[in-house]
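Quick question: what would this complex look like in 3D?
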Amino acid sequence: MTTGHSALHSRCFTAAHLRTATAVVLLMGMTMPAIADEPCQSPYMAKITGEEEFVYVWTLGVKGLGDGSDKLVTIDVRKNSSTFGRVVNTDSVGGQHEAHHGGFTDDRRQYWLAGLDTSKIFIFDVATDPGNPRLIKTIDDFVEKSGGVVGPHGAYALPGRMLISGLSNKDKSGRTALVEYTNDGDYVATHWMPTKDDPQGAENGEKADGYGYDARVLPRRNVMLSSSFTGWNNYMRPIGELVNDADAMKAFGSTMVLWDFHARRPRQVFEVPGAPLEVRWAWGENHNYAFTTTALTSKIWLVSEDTAGKWTARPVGDVGDPTKLPLPVDLSLSADDSTLFVDSFMDGMTRIYDVSNPQKPRQIYEKKIGGQLNMVSQSWDGKRLYYTSSLLANWDKTGESSEQFLKAYSWDGKQLSERFSIDFTKEGLGRPHIMNFGSSALYAN
Amino acid sequence: MTFAKLLVTAVFLSAMTIPGLTHGGARHGNSNEVSGPADSYVYRLAEPGTYQLPAIKPAAGGMVLDERSRPRELKYLFRGHLTILAFIYTRCGDLCPLATMRMAQLKDQAVRSAVRDLRLITMSFDPDYDTPERMAEFAETWRGAEAGPGSSWLFLTAPNRQAVEPLLSAYGQPLAPRADQDGSGSISHLMRVFLIDDHGLVRNIYSPDFLDPRLLLNDLLTLELERSKSGS
């Protein structure tokens, strides 16, 4: 085990394994590395053990702004760098694909970025030169290979594979699937979400709605939890039209699904009304629970296992005033499971909750980050937070509140203090969405 | 089980009882706890044959050395067998012995099962230290007195570092910088174990979380049922 700034396998096992490994390491007189990385990542992934050096931002192109194309933007966050807090690289993928989410492979050598509109997946090499990612492959037959899945969303590291959660299908409605690829970018399998007509043996399967959004694994319990959003017909539609179409507004997910991860089979369907989006598992060795927030009903939900092994989902708190539709979109759980950061799009607020009792989140802080707000990423030590502004090309605000930014803050447990900000419009970049961290220390040899 | 294997097993079992150590050094003392240690594989498993194990990719080959320094083509060793392949190095102090212990447990369980032609392969990626002689010693610890290179559990290494690098690349096993300052020769690596069918296709890839001998056995039985149906 190294004592430097990277550890490939410190992130690929659970707390129990770390405990086991730590004990054995101590017996053998060796040392363990310090750990610091964004906690809301696949547990299978190699991790950065020092401070992040770069923040990668998957950015939607805007017609008439710069080259107008979706692009990967690399920001230098090395504290002593002469380019700290500045864009050091942009990699345009050509065209607009509705850039949204992505993720690293388990060895963290590749960064996969997906387009919700064109269903293309762009694979970047971030290992050769972490400050200058390079596009090495484009998957442009995702729909055909997957058997009709449209709108690749998340890219989640599994051992040697990537799990791509879809949002839609060839009909452009919301029924969708989880799709597996090898790390080399070759198709492996498609796992369709359960529906009431095809519940696939899941408990409460008559409530299954087939929608998808996020999917994340708690390995030591052999469970995966998926959430649900809406199909291409809705997420590509201008928000002003959508909210005035009563039928369209019914076409949102209202379930979460607990899967037997090993068998890739749905076990149980939970009714979680209002489009539950991001899934965040706790990390504690016996913390068998996850949080999500519902976009349309503005609630924090807890999905947990009781001592008898029974899984349930229940609302445990509100995000702001639900009657004002703040639209919670992203959340980030600290590595010690004590603090939950929740972003809401409409009011541009981040709210910070003490969740040391996960059944009773208690808001301890709030701050308006901007006119609109979407993603939040935090370092493993919880001291550095990064925020971006864009939700979807056709859902972002117009006019004065349409600011597009990345803002970096430090968090001291009491308040957020701004470190730097980048105006993505002024820089001619576009609409910034998901962020992930990079570091050259992972690949040093 | 040999004395050395018992000793290593005991070390792991004792390690599992050390309290208060969790990820990131953080302590977690609140609600929602499930009884039983997290490492005891208490989760439920699907029955063999009730789920799919899609082919992931062809398992790469390459020239390796067995315990008697004889060159062997890795690909040929997969033929006609259901193989569990693990990349380790013998100076590893944490996950490699854990993985090797799980393989030993699997071997014991598989004997009592319907799995035919099981082959376990422990492959070192540290040929500078893990010579064939060293692998033979390591094999004696874990495999016991069973005959060497002809046995169902092979302990392999490579002639040199250049020879092992293509294998590591093909199996997605990058190595991180070594920290030799303490003389331990420790290497950071991504612990992965591979299930390979008798046609040489990777059918599952396991992280340490899923090195549950029950789960491995179910996957082997699933492939065995598949073989029975196809008449192979």
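Answer marked as accepted. Residues 53 and 79 of chain A are 8 Å apart (CA to CA).
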